[in-house]
Write a structure and sequence with these properties.
alpha/beta, globular, single chain, carbohydrate metabolism, 6-stranded antiparallel β-barrel, 5-stranded parallel β-sheet
Length: about 500
């Protein structure tokens, strides 16, 4: 994936000038070695920070080494002002952690008091209104802090990506999907750019790519990915390949000062008739390359997908939180086999934007609903182009970052799984199971006015997502609360 950043970590040790500086330096070396042992390459910054001059030198050294994220390591108590100014001067995400004491028989010259120093560090970060990542328990041995650094990497990757992200949209946001019309002001607050374009701009660019010599190569890639069973409309591939090249060229030509691009496109009702196909399969291919394309001009859906891509380093998808599981299907396929109630399960669906690698088996088909609407249910022509199939089972994280009507950011995160149960339906679809989903649906998704789209990361990504959202200043981060833990608006007598 070349649309997400590569994190290059630097480790800066700090030392209170009334403590032994060698203690902090020795512990820094041990931390660097522990990171290396865990397969994590870090740059050991040799300047140890005792004062503001050291701070300038250390940050300059890190930036000269190409570091775009930092771990500030309190090897001893640490100088609270210089160490927090690192986060002010450095142009990237910073994590703070502190060294645990090592030996019971070395608590005179070998005692660092970083446990105490971390308190003053946090206090100073707050005074200066700086942003920093502080782990849940930020004090540990070299091996324990190396694990914290491993957790920091996906967070840093997302934050770096967002700082240089542009969201490109095509078409007005649709009237019947008001949730997609959320205010865009918070995008600028978190450093994201947006470029809004007309569907006509996209159509003109698409037509200009007719006869592009690269089309045949893309067609061959598509055919190889789909296989004989999945390539049900081979005559459609040249059109979709032309569109894929159009989007990729637009991204390259319009990223401007930004490094990374995602899309939020109007995909119906005018699109299929004018372009001659549904864009879903192309959208899925770009998502598999780390360039999410959100349906229905869902700007915050595209933003959420990109965050999930950065956090996991893997393809994600965007789905409707779509329909309940029928009682007879629950009884025959789920009850007694999986530890979920009927209210814990639902179907996540979209027309066909989920990457091929996330489906049990996929095929290019036609959009049934659009075929009814636009082609009167006749033999499909321009409503072809969806990528359909049941989503592969496994752990997932359903989440979304969203702007409310008052231009404040809100988020939710819910971990669960896709069950290995046939959906018996159409589209890119799966049966999702999230503990206490019924209550989460009512008291988060409905009560907090979230839209029908949710981003899906494949794996358990909640820990990193929560840290990213906190770093961005999101105060309301909801989750699927366990039974007995009431939501604010939940009726205790229900």
């Amino acid at each position: 994936m070349n649309n997400i950043p590569e994190v290059k970590l630097g480790v800066i040790a700090v030392s209170r000038d009334c403590f032994v500086i060698s203690l902090s330096e020795r512990r820094r070396k041990a931390l660097t070695e522990a990171c290396t042992a865990k397969g994590l390459a870090v740059c050991e910054i040799k300047t140890t920070v005792e004062n503001e001059t050291d701070m300038i030198r250390a940050v300059d050294e890190a930036e000269a080494a190409g570091c775009n994220a930092l771990v500030v390591f309190l090897g001893n108590f640490g100088p609270e002002t210089p160490e927090t100014l690192i986060a002010s001067r450095f142009r990237g995400p910073v994590m703070y952690a502190a060294a645990a004491e090592e030996h019971g028989d070395d608590l005179i010259n070998g005692r660092g008091d970083a446990y105490c120093g971390m308190l003053n560090c946090s206090y100073n970060i707050g005074l200066r209104r700086l942003k920093a990542v502080i782990p849940e328990y930020p004090v540990g041995t070299a091996e324990e802090i190396a694990d914290m650094v491993l957790d920091f990497v996906p967070v840093a990757r997302a934050l770096i990506g967002l700082s240089s992200l542009k969201i490109i949209t095509f078409g007005p946001r649709p009237q019947d999907f008001f949730a997609c019309n959320a205010p865009i002001k918070p995008l600028y607050d978190i450093g994201v750019e947006i470029q809004e374009n007309s569907e006509l701009d996209l159509l003109v660019a698409y037509r200009a790519h007719a006869g592009d010599p690269r089309i045949d190569g893309v067609v061959q890639e598509m055919a190889a990915e789909l296989g004989a069973a999945g390539n049900q409309y081979p005559d459609l591939l040249p059109r979709m390949a032309q569109f894929e090249l159009t989007l990729l060229d637009w991204a390259e030509q319009n990223k401007g000062a930004r490094d990374y691009v995602v899309f939020a496109d109007k995909c119906w009702p005018a699109f299929p008739k004018e372009f001659g196909f549904e864009p879903c399969y192309v959208n899925s291919r770009l998502a598999s390359r780390g360039i999410p394309v959100a349906c229905e001009v869902d700007i915050y859906g595209a933003l959420s997908e990109y965050i999930g891509t950065c956090v996991t380093g893997e393809p994600v998808t965007l789905l409707d939180i779509n329909n309940s599981v029928p009682a007879d299907m629950y009884e025959s396929d789920i009850k007694g086999k999986y530890n979920y109630t009927i209210r814990d399960v639902f179907m996540g669906f979209h027309c066909g934007n989920t990457p091929f690698c996330r489906l049990k088996s996929g095929a290019v088909k036609f959009q049934l609903i659009q075929n009814r609407l636009l082609e009167d249910g006749q033999t499909p022509d321009f409503t072809r182009g969806t990528l359909e199939g049941d989503i592969a089972p496994g752990n997932i994280t359903f989440f979304r970052l969203q702007s409310a009507a008052d231009a404040t950011l809100h988020a939710y995160i819910a971990q669960g799984e896709v069950l290995p149960v046939a959906t018996r339906s159409f589209g890119g679809i799966g049966i999702f199971a999230i503990p206490e989903m019924g209550r989460f649906y009512r008291h988060v998704l409905i009560s907090k006015r979230y839209p029908h789209h949710g981003a899906v990361a494949f794996g358990s990504a909640g820990k990193a997502l929560y840290t990213v959202f906190r770093y961005l200043g999101v105060e309301d981060i909801a989750f699927n609360q366990p039974a007995g833990m009431l939501y604010k608006d939940e009726n205790p007598f229900a």
